[in-house]
Amino acid sequence: MNDDLKVVLGRRYHFAASHRLHSTQLSDEQNWRVYGKCNNPYGHGHNYVVEVRVSGTVDPATGMIVNLVDLDNFVQREVLEPFDHKSLNEDVEAFRTIVPTTENLCKEIYQRLKHFPLAKLERVRIEETSNNAFEYAGEEFQDRGAVR
Amino acid sequence: MVYLTRKIEFSASHLYHNLALSAEENRRIFGKCNNPHGHGHNYTLEVTVAGEPDPVTGMVLDLKELKAILEREITERMDHRFLNYEVPEFKEQIPTCENIARLIWQILEPKIVQGRLYKVRLYESADIFAECYRNGANHA
């Protein structure tokens, strides 16, 4: 009766990192105008919350889509270790060439997690502060007017 | 289409144990969730109903009605219960967040006749949730 029912597991992770928003394609004045104090030369930091959503079949033996220990280990290795207490600009290769806005951070983390072998990555949501949130579900996701 | 969401909370205990597996396998797979006397959570349930607002009342469905359905069908069954022993479905299934969310969907779907059940999201803690929706729903 519920064969077409989709079940998704969401898990939130926390890391702290610094960044500076500065585009090499803009002049110093343009950078300041676009990014304001996010362009301060020495950078600043956030406590980021990364919400990872995966889907798959619920295993009848375990009642789980995926064992959280396996998901936690994967996210730990792919995201938390390389990002936590780091400078995104200096310590993460991808952000040497692109600006570490949270939009770009969503896409970078999605790329790192999409190869998780035990469930399908549905979406990455990042809260940069409690007032800002960004989501990315891959380029193939077609928004047809949706609810969160 | 308009989507409305109602939230309720309930507290319950559970443990993860599959009788078909050995004690060691249960321990390995489920870790401390396998502790024999169980443990508990404060669950937060978000139920989303989709529909068109009634032209007379302006409502998809009356929130009082949805609240009454949730209290009757979910709070009565699950609040302050030991899920493994007091919810019959969990004699056969392990009461993981995924399975509880799916059971809640199965219970609620036939009860919501104004609008249609669109999504169930169940938080086991602030950092873990499971959600159910129909495949192909315009989900974001």
Keywords:
heterodimer, A: alpha+beta, 4 helices, elongated, B: alpha+beta, 5-stranded mixed beta sheet, 32% strand
Describe the overall structure.
The complex is a heterodimer of chains A (148) and B (140). Chain A has one domain: 2-Layer Sandwich (Tetrahydropterin Synthase, Chain A), CATH 3.30.479. The longest helix of chain A is centred in the middle third of the chain and has 16 residues, at 68-83. Chain A has helices at 28-35, 68-83, 88-91, 102-113, and strands at residues 5-19, 44-55, 86-87, 120-129, 132-136. Chain A is built from four helices and five strands, in the order βαβαβααββ. Chain A has a five-stranded mixed beta sheet with strand order 3-1-2-4-5. Chain A has 148 residues and is of the alpha+beta class. Chain B has 140 residues and is of the alpha+beta class. Chain B has a single domain (2-132), classed as 6-pyruvoyl tetrahydropterin synthase/QueD (Tetrahydropterin Synthase, Chain A), CATH 3.30.479.10. Chain B has four helices and five strands, in the order βαβαβααββ. Chain B has helices at residues 23-30, 63-78, 83-86, 97-108; strands at 2-14, 39-51, 81-82, 116-125, 128-134. In chain B, strands 3-1-2-4-5 form a five-stranded mixed beta sheet. The mean pLDDT of chain B is 95. The A-B interface holds A 1-2, 4-13, 58, 60-65, 67-69, 123, 135, 137, 141, 143-148 and B 1, 3, 16, 18, 20-21, 29-31, 48, 50, 93-99, 101-102, 105-106, 118-119, 121, 126-140. Strand 1 (5-19) of chain A pairs antiparallel with strand 5 of chain B.
